Amino acid sequence: MKMMPPAAFARSLAATPALNTKRVLGLPVVDATTDDCVEALLGGAARTVFFLNAHCANIRARDPHYAAALARAGAVLPDGIGIELAALMIGTELTENLNGTDFTPALLRAAARRGLSVFLFGAKPGTAEAAARKLATTIPGLRIAGTRDGYGGTANSAEAIREINASGADILLVAMGVPQQELWIDRHLSDLAPGLVLGVGALFDFLAGTVQRAPAPVRKARLEWAWRLAMEPRRMAGRYLVGNATFMARAAWHALRLAGPEAIGKRLLDFAGSLALTLIMAPLLLLVAALIRADSRGPVLFRQTRVGRNGKPFTIFKFRTMHTDAAERLAELRASSDREGICFKSRSDPRVTRVGRLLRRYSIDELPQVFNVLFGHMSLVGPRPALPTEVAAYPAHALERLDARPGITGLWQVSGRADIGFDKMVDMDIAYVRSRSLLLDLILLGLTAQAVFSGRGAY
Question: What's the pTM value of the predicted model, to 2 decimals?
């Protein structure tokens, strides 16, 4: 008989919005903050939750049954830096790393506030009980409906299911390791009563203290995999040394197939060009940094949110050319703009420092953007990266310029820069987006040198 989710989940099922997802390695992976994901799941947005990391992706590639279970999952959450890198390879960015060891306790804290109960199923005998005691201590008010080990406790699935259902648990955590836990959940879901079922891997071991987690600084640096390798080198060598290399190759091949030869060539040009420029210009970058510090108070680099490809915000890097109160003084200067349209430009902007005028004259202030290109936020050639306030004021047709990654240089930059009005700039950017090619990029890079030395429109 097919079991219905408990009333706590069923009541809010119709009113719960679907979780936002982005396709990574062909799977719809949840793209949300921890808080938003917790709220959606406890509201009934999904019945089953699986986590996807590099190791899971490798197993998925060779196990069709596990791949099918992942495809049928209600929600697949990104776990670890590998999935983040795979997303970046295809030009997308995930909001947050939702690894099971951190996410599940956050989910249970919210569950405790709602009076929901949890059943722990899996791991070695005694581990689930120890994990339950830890959860009860660290999450006041959490109701533990029951525990069952994943060894003898799984010998009779029908008996295990009867015990889980009889407990009245709202949430079921299954910790049998990948892919056993996902296959078990997928096979028995229709017979399970809990409204939310998660496959949580080694969570019980971490909670029980039988496996030590990496220190917080190591986790923050996204190197927890290296810690586990150091703790268990024989067991983890295949997973993390061979496995990570295999995963990265698989993710890169997937990205190449999606991108096509033209996009691959452009990204290779961007990566190789930005890396070479970074190495060649290192002495110049250090010299400019020293001049900025000597000329005025404030940081060397100016960081600002800009709008990138497909409207995705990113942080742009430039050498600071203005005094630190520039943003506060902008309103009083808008009337003196020398450019028609949305974007403000003034030849005699009093906010610009002495060194800043020189940097702007020869576009040296733009050089730190090579790091944006290296990280994939920008391209060497593309439309000018716009401010969020500018994009908010765009006419509808101007949004087409966001179809390409913004660039350090482009048609607008080599054709007069600030001397060109907003409408003309948009027309140029749209023309580039519609006709972009590697050959065009190479031509524009060549013309950029001439534009820089002429200084036309640079202020």
Answer: 0.66
